[in-house]
Design a protein that fits this description.
Elements lengths: L2 E7 L7 H12 L5 E6 L4 H4 L5 E3 L2 H4 L21 E4 L5 E4 L2 H10 L2 E8 L1 H12 L4 E5 L15 H22 L2 E6 L6 H10 L3 E3 L7 H11 L7 E6 L11 E3 L8 E3 L2 H11 L6 E5 L11 H19 L5 E6 L2 E6 H4 L11 H8 L7
Parallel strand pairs: 1-2, 1-6, 6-7, 7-14, 8-10, 8-13, 9-10
Antiparallel strand pairs: 2-3, 4-5, 11-12, 14-15
This protein binds 6-O-phosphono-beta-D-fructofuranose.
6-O-phosphono-beta-D-fructofuranose binds next to strand 12.
Length: 365
């Protein structure tokens, strides 16, 4: 009987997931004693009745590296340690089903698991590893907020999409002499905003790592827009907030979901600028989930493919409890525990920040 390795894609999707799946399967085909299966919708595939597993044969993975999303489906609600269960009174409670998950995986002959996901998913990986599961992590997120790796796949594609949006907003800002605000994702990290602001040539970039001084933004905008001329482009990360203020968020009502959903920072900024009596017209665009969809960039396909091959080699070497990390030009294994200890945030004195300041991008510090 062949050994079974199971792939799981968990958390928010991002471009490149399918390229990782394909690379794992292709690498495993070189060691015929292994077969690869995928759990449908993260670990839910194992915990539902009947169990939902996909055998990852050639016909399933052919050509999928160019497709966005994940052929396995995903969820960012609950998980094996907080499974949503409806009680008789209709109330939902979270149940720990991790022991059941491990028993079911043993019954199915699953010897190793490759969990492709962001910080939430890798926290689950660490807890399962501590319970004896043979698990390997692969870092995925458009936010690029996982430490221990130079980049997560999906991030570069999101930057391309955000930069394309800045480019489009610049031309209309120029024609109408307007202030254009673009809100991008990234949770508590300003990576997408910073990269898109540099690549797109925005005048102002607001990131969560630097609470902004609204008066400084007003000054810059007013200097750039006088009468019927001038324009200004602002890229704001969804996690950005004014000095002394809070992040803009809405609460999620979905059970088992992250309660705090960021979003609306751009509109909040527009309101603040209007309250400050700014004279130019302002328009705000929220880029939203467009950043997570569609075709992965060539960079992300390559990074995802490298990570998939490395992940399966880590299975062969029994490097369980470790996550694949990209440290240019190498792919290395790092303990998952270390990778989830601290988020990867923009360092204020990093070379990229120096570059941004060097071309006059204002952070309203
Ligand atoms: O972590 C990826 C991400 O896209 C964040 O940038 C964003 O805040 C969040 O997920 C959105 O989550 P959801 O898909 O649940 O709305």
């Amino acid at each position: 009987m062949r050994k079974r390795c199971m792939i799981v894609t968990g958390g928010g999707d991002c471009p490149g997931l399918n390229a990782v799946i394909r690379a794992i399967v292709k690498r495993a085909q070189q060691t015929p004693e292994w077969e690869i299966v995928g759990s449908i919708n993260a670990f839910n595939g194992i915990l539902t009745d009947p169990i939902e597993l996909m055998e990852l044969t050639n016909d399933k993975i052919a050509g999928i590296h160019v497709r966005g999303g994940t052929i396995l489906g995903t969820t960012n609600k609950g998980g094996p340690f907080a499974w949503p269960v409806k009680q008789k009174n209709g109330k939902m409670i979270a149940k720990d089903r991790s022991d059941e998950l491990i028993n079911r995986m043993n019954e199915l002959g699953i010897e190793a698991v490759i969990n492709i996901g962001g910080d939430g998913s890798q926290k689950i990986s660490q807890k399962l590893f501590e319970k004896g599961c043979n698990i390997i992590g692969v870092p995925k997120t458009i936010d690029n907020d996982l430490s221990a790796t130079d980049y997560t796949f999906g991030f570069q594609t999101a930057v391309e999409i955000a930069t394309d949006a800045v480019d489009k907003l610049v031309t209309t800002a120029f024609s109408h002499h307007r202030v254009m605000i673009l809100e991008v994702m990234g949770r508590e990290a300003g990576w997408i905003a910073l990269h898109a602001a540099i690549a797109g040539g925005a005048e102002i970039c607001l990131i969560p790592e630097i609470p902004y001084d609204i008066k400084k933004i007003v000054k810059t905008v007013n200097e750039r827009t006088t009468g019927d001329s001038g324009f200004a482009n602002i890229v704001i990360a969804e996690g950005a907030r004014p000095k002394g203020g809070k992040m803009t968020y809405k609460r999620s009502n979905e059970f088992g979901h992250e309660k705090i959903k960021l979003g609306g920072a751009g509109i909040a900024l527009e309101n603040q600028l209007q309250e400050e009596g700014i004279h130019a017209d302002i328009r705000t665009t929220i880029l939203g989930h467009l950043q997570r969809g569609g075709i992965p960039s060539a960079f992300d396909r390559i990074l995802a493919t490298q990570m998939g091959v490395k992940a399966f080699e880590m299975v062969l070497n029994k490097q369980y409890g470790q996550m694949v990390a990209y440290r240019h030009p190498d792919l290395i294994a790092v303990p998952i525990k270390q990778a989830i200890a601290e988020p990867n945030l923009v360092q204020l004195n990093s070379p990229l920040m120096e570059t941004a300041r060097g071309v006059g991008i204002q952070f309203a510090e």
